[in-house]
Design goal:
Blueprint: H1 8-14, E1 24-27, E2 34-37, E3 41-51, E4 71-76, E5 80-89, E6 93-98, E7 101-105, E8 108-110, E9 114-119, E10 123-127, E11 130-132, E12 136-141, E13 144-148, E14 151-153, E15 160-163, E16 167-171, E17 174-176, E18 183-185
Parallel strand pairs: 1-3, 2-4, 3-5, 4-6, 5-7, 5-8, 6-9, 7-10, 8-11, 9-12, 10-13, 11-14, 12-15, 13-16, 14-17, 15-18
Length: about 190
Amino acid sequence: YEKLMTTAAAQRHTNIGTVQVYRTRLNFDNSNGINVKNGGKLGKLSNVVLCGRGHRLDGGTYEFTNGVTGNGISVSDNAMCVLENVSVCGFQNGLYVDQSMVYGTGVVSSANYYGLYSENQGSISADYCMFTGNSYGVYAKASNIDSHYNIFSANWQDGFNIKDTTKAKLNRSISAFNGGYGYSVKDNSNL
């Protein structure tokens, strides 16, 4: 038998589960964020927020169609990186993958033009991630995506857009409340 709380305030204080604290915030006002390229390997990037030019110092964001440039995290030319509890905001591409591999868990990509942009056989494994408030949540051309338990929501255009023979495997993910399609699959791509 558990005694019921008598006020909303008392109930609120008993239901707090876990509070995640990001230890570091990095501002990139006029440049790309983190670049891994030419066969490089980034073992793990975790518990960090990367803010681009489209993110103001007072915490607000500009319209993503005006002022966003560069890549928050760029992985290209046969490189590889692991991301855990990383947030990216205010860039042209929150995550950019080109002929490389990215493993992500708990990634949040918001207020970018593309939350995730992948091309040229980019390979992405992303679980428990959120792509929200971007122009496109995920936009992939000729890539491979293996992704589970993700949310693609409140993006200005499509939540999840794949084309040019991209292969995507999504289990228990949701795409809702986007301005365009929840899922857009074109040009011999498979979902």
